[in-house]
Protein 1
Amino acid sequence: MKIRIKGDSVRFRLTQTEVKSLSENGKIFDSTNFGSIKFNYGVVLNSDIDQLHISYEKNAIVLEMPKKTGEEWFSNDIITYDHTLKTSSGNDLYLLLEKDFTCLDNTIEDQSDNYPNPKLS
């Protein structure tokens, strides 16, 4: 799972295995260890929401996805889900959740579990 944060936008990219795990188990988490602090991030399915939602608490970013949508995501062809959330501070926070495609350029990153890039066909 990759996250990219820029300004008021947060983007999560999941491999095939991660999308399958999310669909079957209702959650997927990863972390980055900074030594004395561990930063956690993940995606969870929530039956009480109808749009993407995000929270940041206790050194963790958790993106929530509607449960029914998430359960079906692995078996469908939908690539991206997005939503613009109005925060309690009044700003717009753009959320993007997508299937991770293989890169078009050379990279040293392991991409063996990424979705085939349609531009390579």
Protein 2
Amino acid sequence: MNISVVVQTRDIPEQSDAKQNRFVFAYTIAITNNGDLPAQLLSRYWLITDANGKKVEVQGAGVVGEQPTIEPNETYTYTSGCILETEVGTMEGFYEFVSDSETAQVPISVFRLAVPNIVH
């Protein structure tokens, strides 16, 4: 399976509250099927780490309530969110896909969530 994953992140200051140690981020993920067969996203796994070293694991079926089938040379894009107790954190994980009868884990490299201008 040849699947690529591209992530873009942004902070959401209007939903964040530094006094309450609540920092809200959005991430948009584009998943492209570079293979020759349709691939269905079955599940996701995330490891979310904040600047204090607190780790949270999130796993479940699909993404944003969907288990999309991505056709060859097509891209599926979705946006979701994450709340941290610190101004900086990271996410990483994998998607599980099935194509034909083959199942594969597609890794999602570590990406940073950060309030702008907090990290120089």
